[in-house]
Design a protein that fits this description.
About 15% of the residues are buried. By secondary structure, this protein is of the alpha+beta class. α2 runs antiparallel to α3. α1 links the parallel β1 and β2. The protein folds into two domains: about 30 residues, no CATH class; about 140 residues, no CATH class.
Length: about 200
C-alpha cells in the first residue's frame, strides 16, 4: 500500500473549501481558525486556554475519563474485554485541576473529556464560530485530553478537526483497507463506535 500525500487547501479560498467538503476525501487547511479566540489562547499558553474555557463553562458536572496507567495513554479494552478506563463526573474547574496534578506528578495516566457538545457545557463559547459551522446540521464538539491514543475507528459525521492547543496526530486508512482493521465488538466499545483491534505501534504482521 502506497502512502499518498493529503491535499492542502487554502483557507482564503471559500470555493476550494466547499469543494473539499463535498469531495469526501481528507484534506488539510492551515491557519483556518488562526483568528479564533480559542486558538489564540491556545497559542498563548495552556494556562491561558484553560482559564478562557473555564470562563465560559456552565455550572454543571462534566463527564471525564481516567485510564489505567499500564495502558500508557491508549484508550482500549483491558484483558477481560472491559474498557481500560473509568468515567467520573466533576465540575470543570476540578477536572482541569486533575490535569495539573497528573502533569506535576509526572504520571503516565490518560485523562480526557471526550467530544463534549459545546452548547451543553459552555455558554457563548462559539459566538465567533466560522460561518461554515453555523448551520443546523453541524455539531460542535470539544475534546480535551493529555497524551492519549485513540484506536482506529470511523465516525458518522464528516469531521472538521481543529487543533486549538497542543499537538494532535491523525492516522488515516483508505476505505479499501476496512477489512484489515479487525474491528472489535460493535455492542460494547470504548467510545461508541467499533474500534480496530490492531495496535498501530506494534502490528502483528
Amino acid at each position: 500500500m502506497s502512502v499518498q500525500q493529503i491535499a492542502e487547501i487554502s483557507s482564503h479560498d471559500p470555493d476550494a473549501l466547499k469543494e473539499g467538503f463535498a469531495s469526501g476525501r481528507p484534506f488539510v487547511v492551515r491557519q483556518l481558525h488562526s483568528d479564533w479566540p480559542l486558538v489564540q489562547k491556545g497559542r498563548e499558553s495552556a494556562s491561558a486556554l484553560k482559564q478562557y474555557l473555564l470562563s465560559f463553562s456552565l455550572k454543571r458536572e462534566f463527564v471525564f475519563a481516567i485510564g489505567e496507567p499500564e495502558q500508557k495513554g491508549k484508550i482500549f479494552y483491558n484483558r477481560d474485554m472491559g474498557v481500560n478506563f473509568v468515567e467520573r463526573r466533576a465540575p470543570f474547574e476540578t477536572v482541569l485541576g486533575y490535569f495539573d496534578e497528573i502533569r506535576d506528578a509526572g504520571e503516565d495516566v490518560a485523562l480526557y473529556l471526550s467530544s463534549l457538545e459545546i452548547h451543553k457545557y459552555f455558554e457563548n463559547l462559539l459566538s465567533e464560530t466560522p460561518a461554515y459551522l453555523a448551520g443546523d446540521n453541524c455539531r460542535a464538539g470539544l475534546w480535551i485530553g493529555n497524551k492519549i491514543q485513540v484506536p482506529l475507528h470511523n465516525d458518522f459525521p464528516s469531521n472538521v478537526a481543529c487543533v486549538i492547543g497542543g499537538r494532535r496526530k491523525f492516522t488515516l486508512m483508505p476505505p479499501v483497507q476496512f477489512e484489515n482493521l479487525y474491528l472489535g465488538p460493535i455492542d460494547f466499545t470504548p467510545a461508541g463506535r467499533a474500534v480496530s483491534m490492531v495496535d498501530l505501534e506494534n502490528p502483528d504482521f
